[in-house]
Amino acid sequence: MRLQNEREQLVAYGKRLITSHLTTGSGGNLSILNREEGLVAITPSGMDYFTTQPEDIVVLDLDGNIVEGKRKPSSEWRFHLDLLQHRDNINAVVHTHQVYATTFACLNWEIPAVHYLVGFSGDKVPVAPYATYGTQELSDNILKTIGDYNVVLLANHGLIAVGHSMERAFAAAEEIELVAQLYYQTKCIGQPVILNNEQMGEVLMSFQGYGQGRRK
Fold first, then answer.
1. Quick one: fold of 4-207?
2. Which of 6, 76, 174, 177 is catalytic?
3. CB contact set of 165 (below 8 Å; sequence gap of 6+)
4. Is 37 designated active site?
5. Taking every annotated instance into account, which residue ranges of this chain make up the domain Class II aldolase/adducin N-terminal (predicted)?
6. Quick one: DSSP state of residue 51?
7. How many CB atoms lie within 10 A of CB 138?
8. For 28, what's the count of Cα atoms within 13 Å in the CB-facing half-sphere?
9. What are the pLDDT digits (tens) for 133-163?
10. Where are the domains of the chain?
11. Measured between alpha carbons, how far is 17 from 15 in angstroms, rounded to an integer?
């Protein structure tokens, strides 16, 4: 079976989409690019994450052709493939319908630096203009918006997070949901204080060494 490791990751992280409250039902989708083989593992369309098995994961080439798998790939396969080829530091894509972030997507509002953890995206979370799900127009809107950001809101739809690994992309989706909830709550109470460019610049520099890399 091609891309066994990537398939197993998608099965595990698909369940986490539900248990982490980042989507409901069969909503959302996940993909991982194996750059050495030039192949993408992507979740199947409309399947329950808790019944999905590694053999249900679909393997595509970068032109969108099915290389292996009996299921239909996610209806959002276009933006997955386009994002994975857009920047060489993107190897995984997470698409969710998480409630707080999607609330701001439905308002067509960016999420500003109300908390330093917005740095998982960049200095903010931008919003891509609305287009019907599964269309090339939606993919084009995402590519025009994402720039160097790691998270993008999809107007009236949801959220996309990208990363060099599935672990990193998924973490970005989770952390931005926290930031979105904090932004929502501060807006309910009063006027949130937003971190300035200098403050966020320091955060982003610090994030470059974040994690369990070798100490220098």
1. L-fuculose-1-phosphate Aldolase (3.40.225)
2. 76
3. 91, 92
4. no
5. 8-184
6. T
7. 22
8. 30
9. 999 999 999 999 999 999 999 999 999 999 9
10. 4-207
11. 5
